[in-house]
Amino acid sequence: MKKSLDRREKVLDLLYQNQDRYLSGEELSNKLGVSRTSIWKYINYLREAGYQIESSSKIGYRLITPADNLLPEEIKRNLNTEIIGQEIIYYKEIESTNDAAKKLAQSGLQEGAVVIAEEQKRGKGRLGREFCSPLGGIWLSCILRPDIKPTLATRATYIASLAIVKTIRKLSAVDAKIKWPNDILVGNKKVSGILTEMGAELDKVDYLIVGMGINLNFPLDTFDESLHNKVTTIYHETGKKISRVKFVQALLEEIEMVYKKLYDFKDILKEWKAYSYTLGKVVKIDNKKEEIVGEAVDIAEDGALLVKVDDKVRKFYSGEVSLYHQSFNSGN
Amino acid sequence: MKKSLDRREKVLDLLYQNQDRYLSGEELSNKLGVSRTSIWKYINYLREAGYQIESSSKIGYRLITPADNLLPEEIKRNLNTEIIGQEIIYYKEIESTNDAAKKLAQSGLQEGAVVIAEEQKRGKGRLGREFCSPLGGIWLSCILRPDIKPTLATRATYIASLAIVKTIRKLSAVDAKIKWPNDILVGNKKVSGILTEMGAELDKVDYLIVGMGINLNFPLDTFDESLHNKVTTIYHETGKKISRVKFVQALLEEIEMVYKKLYDFKDILKEWKAYSYTLGKVVKIDNKKEEIVGEAVDIAEDGALLVKVDDKVRKFYSGEVSLYHQSFNSGN
Q: Is the ipTM of this complex over 0.95?
């Protein structure tokens, strides 16, 4: 399904396909129609990126160990999507993938493009909160350009949360659940958060930036101890590291599958509810004006949380509530 | 109320205050604490911008005729605002002031900042339509950062339309009216349009860009003849040119006054209705699915147009309708 492989991707492909033998610089250069100097430069780039590549001036190159970093050419190898991730912009380190994606979206970058970074220096949560994003996690932002009104933009958060929870369950087998509106929990601790931002006219979304952060392959003590009852990482929960490249590939594929149902939001909601942590629980809503305790009973078609308070069902939108589950304390 | 005047503004101020005599380079340089070369450079800049300034190496400089362009230092002279227009970014020519303002807003430019251009090369109307923006008009975009939800962003269009209609009436005495949602008419022809765009989280507006275009000082035949029954210019209607600097100053002051009532939207709506072209008229709503004819009876508190159709009042949001007045044909 891939649209095109550029030369860098082809070099990597050839190295992967020929791990049992040496590929000479000449062979690579002939196959790809580029100079041997170009090949040599790219090999060095891969080494810097953490790949172990044996080489000998006489016999050529051989890939020993792939690096588990998130190079676009690595993610796009065998990526089975049509839109999401067909363009990937990679940073070793960045302030915020959402901010970078916003700028790129404004400059016209197409739907499906993904900004990914090994590390965010100023990762953002909702309402300007900090979001800790160390090495070993997945920090990416996806540009979507659906033809919808701004009032429907909330669907993007549903799409992302569903895609993340499914990917985590598929690759790590932990019992991940979605805490409305935008967190993924394992047990009752946060492993992932979503920040959706948009650029829009009053009548029409120009772009959505769906930022996703997943605490994947790093130990719990990366976080301050004061947070250990609120957050966790997949690695901490399972003791196993997951290939980050495979995780990102699976995630992008899930996003695409769910995104295709954007206009059948009922379908998305139905699946979403199966993974909900929030529904059926007693929740506390603090909407600045008042504090309300009630049972979260359902999600409305417009994405609002329906809470039964004194036998009356009330609607709450993400912006109005900070949501506390009775069983434990956790920020949202 | 002005917060600060930079040196360039001070030079212009001194020239204005001393139009009856020559100001020597030395005097200017002493008063402002800058070199005579700096003074000389700025005088040249003003001349290039269209100011007629007499000079003599012996006796100094004297302002003969101010230029009617929109230099920030000219607009900010005697501008009576606290927020709107305290920072002005000026372009002789630009693709789109809204696009420039968006980029600046994203880089953190503060509330009230204004991007203004003598001419837009790719002015934008709603939903990507073209917006003709030749020399002699007013083309500006204002950055607002209210603490509101995206659903309330529509208020910005009400604020801008009210400010524009009041400014036109004040300075030209034509009977301008507001055609819902975002045009200003004289007679039944468009003299001004508004394009509001936003950057937002799902719960909170980050910035609003309120783009305004006003056909002020240029003749009607700037437009293609096919449009002459749909558009007009203040100059065509009155035969008089208005100082563009004064127009912008008055406009920014009106915007600020109306913007201060953002949280009392009822007040804004009340005034807005007094200038409405649409209310009380039979309108045709075309919302892709169906064509509805009814009487526009009121504006709802959320900014929707209320239309009485077969004795039932229905709500229409700007995105859903193209609106046709029975008396004439006009795009919106």
A: no
